[in-house]
Design brief:
The chain has two helices and three strands. By secondary structure, it is α+β, with helices and mostly antiparallel strands. A three-stranded antiparallel β-sheet has the order 2-1-3, with helices on one face.
């Protein structure tokens, strides 16, 4: 089952069947582009099943 995460601050979206990979990609994006460090729990809360 794939999950998707959409950044609320820009157009960034990522989709993966591996939740750990998705979390890592979102955390990297948030740090690089928004100087933020979201927790894995916050990212899981924002994931949608696709």
């Amino acid at each position: 089952m794939a999950h998707q995460y959409s950044c609320s601050a820009c157009e960034f979206q990522v989709r993966s069947e591996n939740d750990d990979e998705l979390i890592e990609l979102v955390q990297h994006h948030a740090q690089e582009y928004h100087d933020m460090s979201p927790s894995a729990g916050d990212i899981r809360d924002g994931m949608k099943t696709v």
